[in-house]
Description:
The protein is mainly alpha-helical. The chain has two helices and two strands, in the order ββαα. The chain has one domain.
Amino acid sequence: xxxxxxxxxxxxxxxxxxxxxxxxxxxxxxxxxxxxxxxxxxxxxxxxxxxxxxxxxxxxxxxxxxxx
Length: 68
Ligand SMILES: [Zn+2]
């Protein structure tokens, strides 16, 4: 299965990987070139939160349930 960018959802071949989630070069560059208070940056942060942090939280909850 091809990786998809968590921001623009396009299939990608290269880019940065954060915790097995991928961000394409295009979005990475947009982020680097955007100032902190832009809508894109806010959107990007939301995507990271949803794609990287929330699944991790769910996994740790599952681990807790399995161990109890
Ligand atoms: Zn992208």
